Input
Amino acid sequence: MRYRRPRGVNDILPDEVGQWQRAETAFRRLCKRYRYREIRTPVFEQTGLFTRTVGEESDIVRKEMYTFEDKGGHSLTLRAEGTAPTVRAFIENNLQGQDRERLVKLYYIAPIFRYDRPQAGRYRQHHQAGVEAIGSSNPAVDAEVIDLALAFYQEMGLEDVQLRLNSVGCPKCTPAYVETLKAALGAHVEELCPDCQRRYERNPLRILDCKQPACRRITEQVPKLLDMLCDECREHFEGLVAALDLLGIEYVLDPHIVRGLDYYTKTAFEFVCKGLGAQDSIGGGGRYDGLVEQCGGEPTPGVGFGIGLERVLLARKALGLEEGEPAREGVLVAALNDEAWAEAIKLTSELRDAGIIADLDYRRRSLRSQLRFANSEGFAATVILGEDELAKGVVVVRNMQTGEQQQVARTDAVEYLRNF
RNA sequence: GUGGACGUAGCUCAAUCGGCAGAGCACCUGACUGUGGCUCAGGUGGUUGUGGGUUCGAGUCCCAUCGUCCACCCCA
Output
């Protein structure tokens, strides 16, 4: 029986790991600069954490979760998104401490699991790099997380990233808007797509997100939530826009951004990158002022985003930004006969003990083949050990970049190669 | 979850109407008996995704299944 990887999941192979580490390192460095601290939460959580926060009506909960029962009969779910687990850990470990005004800034890089039909840029396991800033309702914090995300895209060489911005209001203004929306749509319900007719009853806001041309025509006529925000939400949105202007960040107002997670309040945003086909959203987030309380904590506002790393890497590829050849490094110790082979094993070990990358060609082939091996494997140097060298107590060091060779006393070999 | 395209060597792809499974790259060996990259010569490599069916004969036609991709949907 030959096993294959399950549908929609990927192996990250040695040749690809470099670009992942590059992205992760860049994200970590930026987070540190903005003073976000890393948090690592479990790969599964109690199912209720997701169903109650993301929303029973969301696609994620209705059909995309990896849910299973453990031997104790508890319903668990693989991490379906990044915010709820972070908020859960924030509350459970009392990360805010006694200072109720303190802003706790956290980041994570973690796999996310959703059962969806796979496609390029859409997988059943993908990875998100995200931040959560919990404890402040200041719109300057919304601007800070957006600024951080954009800094990451820039660091990754993605130039044409568009910020799409909206406000989805709060429990004080959204219900009134929903009534207005339903009233405005009421006469056209028959013309909406079947999904939207469903949404009309259960989650009318999502109709604004529908991309069906027929629905689009109708929703364009309808009043915008942005024009009906309560004073608090309007002031917050104006504050965010002002802060973005201060930072020189451009944005496009997009009333269609509702986002598929129910906990969002006020700010909602999305980052879009051209050239990725249908899966062109490379990140998104928003504010969730009711989430901490909903998860059993003290009422505490928060804002954050998640960035899809697979899509960032795909975008780099589409732009031709793939990694170049890695720099040559390390030493191949080549042996020409059995006596030299024994010495080669010893020298390799000494080099490794000295912290130098070193290896042997265990196939015991001709010098020609060993040099070919050293070349294709990207070694910086080859040490040649043969009859002559053993007799003279020396080694020959060949620079694989230039082809220059140097005879070095066997006793000085490790030191010479340390400074190579 | 809906509709569609495509699965042939490690990689990229050929194979006419159903008639001997091929090329380039890569890899191995040699030309060069102790010197890589360039060149040249030779060579290894395949259950044509998998399982059935039709046929004298299937990579090719039919059915199923798995996978990848595209659009929708959704999202990152």
